[in-house]
Amino acid sequence: MLKFTAEHEWLKLEGDVATVGITQHAADQLGDLVFVELPEVGAELTKDGNAATVESVKAASDVYSPLDGEVVEVNQAIVDDPSLVNSDPQAAAWFFKLKLKNVSDIDSLMDEAAYKDLIG
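The structure corresponding to this sequence follows.
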């Protein structure tokens, strides 16, 4: 199940663990990424709280946690090569995996059709 936030994060749920990244739209708006900072494994994140930072040649931007949970894995590959986020933001370039505190909270996020309406 793929869900989206108004802040342009995507989330894919598998059991009680969500893989989180930024959308193609966000990657396109940022331009070429040159730096990615991810949360620490074990960090407790809160919904809409700052989870990661990305920097591009245009700007720096925060990546927010879509839901409450604990970081159980991060994608070191995008730290080593931030350009992966530009080339494959909604698959290989995921940011972190979050063990959700309450899986049913995912229902508060947008589905793909609602997200497409948001970005026009």
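DSSP finds four helices and nine strands in the chain.
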